[in-house]
Design a protein that fits this description.
mainly alpha, 3-stranded antiparallel beta sheet, 13 helices, 3 strands, disordered C terminus
């Protein structure tokens, strides 16, 4: 299905690759992402100076400048990747997955530990988190493997896909990054479900996931502490969650006004994981409902576009990628509302963070490339 595009119309006789891309790209999704990035820049101005002062940076706009740079890189990457047809989108994903998977393995030996997880490489003043690139590319890889069941039914494609997922999950847990592992699992299950998940696999996932969750809770002290902030708050330090809820409550309906938030100064990760609470404090209930509505519209538009694709690979991969974005947003918001244990997951395109912005740019770029209209060059059975 050809998507209509906003802006000046080009002649139908113009069949250049740029015109084809422009006509078939979902500009509604692009607009939603750009709006989220603009909100992120606005909130960086609101919370960046206090975060810089707390950490000890001399320049109060340290995080503002970097957030602007990260937003340009993330959206630029998204638009660049969206230019690809399905064949090249898949090939790019496979190459990036192989490189990022290897880097995650190397991290276990030489990585930088942040908040208890050895997930980062440090380069001068920048940190790189390879797991942000592994998540979307694994979804594309597994979607392609699952789609091969229709062409070569004799091969154990589901088991091969599960093996890649299991190996990647193991690297997440070894770091340990249980929040990232949980998000990856949910997105993988979405893709598996869309591709046709047998009932026996559903039972197996439920049993295995429950057993693993109990095991991690008992083996990893930081997991127990985070879970207990919800299940047994009297047994752990809940200062950050209490301040987050205080900020949300203080905002009321219309907020305290831009830059007028007071509680945000006391929240350690106000510019990253808990930016949602700052939005609530300074702009109120109306603002956070608007933010949630943007994510919901992206989810609805994305899943609807994915459901219309006849190509099994592209449909499965696109559904998994849109799930990755919207589930991460839902989990982050749930953490801020104290209904989900802290996970370390950012609010996509709004929270400060270069790796997160690049990872989400790649995620949406691949998704946009896969859901482009039928006028694209990619019309083969599996890209």
């Amino acid at each position: 299905m050809t998507q209509s595009a906003a802006g000046p119309l080009l002649p139908r006789s113009d069949s250049s690759w740029f015109t084809e891309w422009r006509r078939t790209l979902d500009w509604g999704l692009v607009a939603g992402v750009m709006l989220l990035a603009a909100i992120g820049l606005l909130m960086s101005l609101a919370v960046g100076p206090s975060a810089a002062a707390r950490i000890g940076y001399a320049d109060p706009y340290h995080f503002v400048y970097r957030q602007a740079l990260f937003a340009v890189i993330g959206i630029g990457l998204m638009l660049t990747v969206s230019l690809l047809d399905r064949t090249w989108a898949r090939r790019l994903a496979l190459v990036i997955f192989a490189a990022a998977f290897l880097l995650m393995a190397v991290l276990l030996l030489v990585g930088r530990e942040v908040n208890g997880a050895q997930s980062w490489f440090r380069f001068t003043s920048f940190s790189v988190q390879p797991s942000e690139l592994v998540k979307p590319t694994l979804i594309v890889l597994c979607a392609w493997l699952l789609a091969q069941r229709e062409r070569y039914p004799a091969a154990p494609w589901s088991i091969i896909a599960f093996a890649f997922y299991g190996a990647t999950l193991g690297l997440f847990i070894l770091q340990p990054d249980v929040g990232g592992a949980a998000l990856l699992t949910l997105a993988f299950l979405t893709a598996f479900f869309v591709s046709g998940l047998p009932k026996r696999w559903i039972i197996g996932f439920a049993a295995g996931g429950g057993a693993l969750a109990v095991l991690l809770y008992n083996l990893l002290p930081y997991v127990k502490v985070r879970v207990n902030t919800i299940l047994n708050p009297s047994s752990v330090d809940t200062f950050q969650i209490e301040k987050t809820l205080e900020a949300i409550g203080r905002g009321g309906l219309f907020g305290t006004g831009p830059g007028e938030g007071k509680v945000k100064i006391q929240i350690p990760e106000a510019h990253t994981d808990f930016i949602f609470a700052v939005i609530a404090e300074e702009f109120g209930l109306i603002a956070i409902v608007a933010v949630m509505a943007i994510y919901a519209l992206i989810a609805v538009r994305g899943f609807r576009a994915a459901s219309r694709i006849e190509d099994g690979f592209a449909r499965t991969a696109a559904a998994g990628l849109f799930a990755l974005l919207t589930l991460q947003a839902a989990v982050n918001i749930g953490v801020n509302l104290a209904v989900v244990p802290p996970t370390g997951l950012t609010l996509p395109f709004i929270s400060y963070g270069g790796s997160s912005m690049v990872g989400m740019g790649l995620t949406l770029g691949l998704a946009l490339a896969l859901v482009r209209g039928e006028g694209t060059r990619s019309r083969g059975p599996y890209g």
